[in-house]
Amino acid sequence: MRTPIVIVNFKLYEISIARALDISKSIEQVSRKLGVEVALAVPATMIREISSNVSLPIYAQHVDDDQLGAHTGSITPELIKEAGARGTLLNHSERRIRLDQVANVIERLSSLGMDSVLCVDRRELVAPAALMGPTAVLVEPPELIGSGRSVSKVRPEIVSESVKAVKVNQSVRLIVGAGISTYEDVIKAMELGADGVGAASAVMKSNSPASVVEEFAKAIRDRRLAP
Ligand SMILES: O=C[C@H](O)COP(=O)(O)O
User: Record-annotated residues binding substrate (predicted)?
Assistant: First the structure.
């Protein structure tokens, strides 16, 4: 995973693959123009179409810890890799999985050479999560998710303490999310030491998702250029 990064979680805000692909292509242009890494976490059924047509890293939003065989409806690390995903979100507040499954899935993703973005809902879980060896820990207080009130502005201590806590495993990045909506929200997250931001509603509910991502990417670019 290249950082600093913006991870846009499409969640279930868009069900048309054609529209999701258009959004992805416009975000790809923004990423190229500003030279800022942007990854897209898309519904599993969209991974192949989007990853085949867009050069951004494409992530799943969830995977199951089931093995090959009699498991109905499972989405596994191998399936998403085959579809073209670079990695996946794991244990999102809206899609929790058991701790033992988290550990197994991180291991499986790692052996497949894929990224794992392990979500936690509070700063106290950042260090234990980092010790499980994911590519990144994404901390998101659930009460701010979808609220338009950004974690970096409303609860800056969550970001700064998480940045410290993740250092328990030097190879793990720290990403923050929940309510990230503006250029200033991203600037603040980066000033506090985050390696990136995760965002969903501000982008996907906008009439111009790429313009919102452009503001986020400009914040990362400007912060990078700052002395
Ligand atoms: O994965 C993304 C997060 O849940 C943030 O969602 P939000 O930007 O709508 O608050």
Answer: 9-11, 145, 179, 200-201
pLDDT digits (tens, 9 = 90+) for 1-50: 999 999 999 999 999 999 999 999 999 999 999 999 999 999 999 999 99
**With a threshold of 0.95, does the pTM exceed it?**
yes
- Write the Ramachandran bin of 81: left for phi over 0, alpha for psi from -120 to 50, otherwise beta: alpha
Give the containing element (helix H, strand E) for 116: strand 115-120
The one-letter amino acid at 104: N
The ligand 1 atom nearest the CA atom of 145? 10
Which domain covers residue 194, as residue numbers?
Answer: 5-225
Task: Assign residue 202 the CATH number of its domain.
Answer: 3.20.20.70
Number of domains in the chain: 1
Whether 11 has a binding-site annotation, put simply, is yes
Whole-angstrom distance between the N-terminal and C-terminal Cα of the chain? Answer: 24
Structure tokens at 147: 């609220």
